[in-house]
Amino acid sequence: MDIQTTGNAERSIMGNLYVRIDDRLIHGQIVTAWCKTLGIDRIIAVDDLLATNEMMKSIMTMGVPKHIQAEIADSKMASDRLKDTFAGNTLLIARFARNLRILEEELSSSQVINLGNCSKQDNAVFTSKGIGVGGMISLTAEDVDVLDCFESRGIKVTNQQVPTDKEVLWRDLKRNQ
User: Fold this and answer.
1) What is the distance between the alpha carbons of residues 163 and 154, in angstroms, rounded to a whole number?
2) What is the C-alpha separation between 100 and 104, in angstroms, rounded?
3) pLDDT tens figures, 34-79
4) Residues 4-13: b if buried by 16+ CB within 10 A, e if exposed
5) Angle at 98 between CA 142 and CA 62, to 5 degrees
6) What's the sign of the alpha-carbon dihedral 154, 132, 135, 65?
7) CA 108 to CA 173: how far, in whole Å?
8) By the 8 A CB rule, do 24 and 117 touch?
9) Is 169 left (phi over 0), alpha (psi -120 to 50) or beta?
């Protein structure tokens, strides 16, 4: 997420929206690297199944500093949260690209969708080592379609494990598969 180019004039009063696809959702790299680099005030992790499990939600959010609002939300709740006015910067994290399809309208104000780790999927049509330590990208046909759709709408789609890694564009990652 090239932070020099992610600002959005329409959302500048409300803060910026950053989007990441990472099957680990909220974890150490998110809290120690991305939140600090992007000045994140709120994390919304989208996962319909996890949103119903109070114990797992508590475990996943326990390492988030108190000054950052963090929640695990189902798709509907995430949509509602993204429509609310929020003065700070928000990081929306989805387990799979396909989880973003229902949020297309709300994500139109984001300028970048960042691919983090996406572990092996049995029905994958795209796999790549990705960038960085442990970087794996495994995508289904639906995931690829969603990323292509966002890219065709002018949203930059990148792969970058941590902010210090080189940013690789989705179209280059596909070309070099």
Assistant:
1) 22
2) 6
3) 999 999 999 999 999 999 999 999 999 999 999 999 999 999 999 9
4) eebebeebee
5) 150
6) negative
7) 23
8) yes
9) beta
Strand intervals (E) in the chain: 17-21, 40-46, 69-73, 89-94, 112-115, 126-128, 137-139, 156-159, 168-169
Q: Which residues contact 10 (CB under 8 A, 6 or more apart)?
A: 109
For the entire predicted model, the pTM comes to 0.88
Q: Which long-range contacts (CB under 8 A, 24 or more apart) does 120-127 make?
A: 126/174, 126/177, 127/177
What are the pLDDT digits (tens) for 143-160?
999 999 999 999 999 999
Look-up: residue for tokens 């969708």? 113
DSSP 79-125: HHHHHS--SSEEEEEESSGGGGGGGTTGGGG-SEEEE--B---TT-S
What is the CA 79 to chain-centroid distance, rounded?
14
Rg of the chain on CA atoms, in Å: 15
Amino acid identity, residue 147?
Answer: L
